[in-house]
Amino acid sequence: MDFEDFVQDLSSLEVISKDNQKMAVKLKGVPLQYANALRRVCLNGVPVFAVDTVDIIENTSVLADEGLAHRLGLVPLKTDLSRFNEPSKCECQSEAGCSNCKVMLVLDSGDSDVTRTVLSNELSSEDDSIKPISEKIPIVQLAPGQKIKVECYARLGRGTEHAKWNSATISTLTETDKDDERVLTVESTGALSPEQIILAGVDEVSNKLGEFKEMVSQIQE
Q: DSSP letters of 52-72?
């Protein structure tokens, strides 16, 4: 079986187990090189949203501006691949981005007279489909009188660029006791469902294979 046949016949994917976070599928008759390519793409080749730039308006916490920006970048964000474009593929072709490739999130802790932890539920997104996967992710602890106010800009990216854009926390390929049969297990960061990751991964590998064949044909000509 070549990869085009695999893409056209998704019955090759037999679901073994599935929940909101993890999915395991059995690959039958898929050559090892294609199965491993799919594993790698599922880990860091499927685009997801993450905070890319942060404008610090006010930060009187003990965490330096760079540390605060780093923490915000590592907050996993729910992703909608059907509505947004990667910046390099967006029609705007602007460094500033547009509503089709960039989303702003704002965090304003306000004043407090007690020590408290700022959580991800305080990140307010201009688009409700792009928001933290959990409301309980700690960002920074503030002492009485301290506050933070930031504007964050999130975009689609891939884990090959930075780990904050990894679509999965785990992507493994294991052999079974049968010949030419393997199990792909994918655990999502929460940005996408594991099923979305695997299906998008199939499309990604198929596109890359097509691009490679086109390059080879041009060389031969």
A: EEEEEEEE-SSS-HHHHHHHH
* Residue type for position 123: L
pLDDT (0 to 100) of residue 11: 47
Q: Which one has a higher pLDDT value, 167 or 96?
A: 167
Nearest of 137, 113, 112 to residue 123 by alpha carbon: 137
Question: Between 212 and 69, where is the model more confident?
Answer: 69
Rounded CA separation 113/172 (Å): 48
Helix (H, G, I), strand (E, B) or coil at 94: coil
Least reliable range by pLDDT among 8-12, 74-78, 146-150: 8-12
Q: CATH homologous superfamily for 3-46+167-212? A: RNA polymerase, RBP11-like subunit (3.30.1360.10)
SS3 of residue 74 by DSSP: coil
Fold that domain 48-158 belongs to in CATH: RNA Polymerase Alpha Subunit; Chain A, domain 2 (2.170.120)
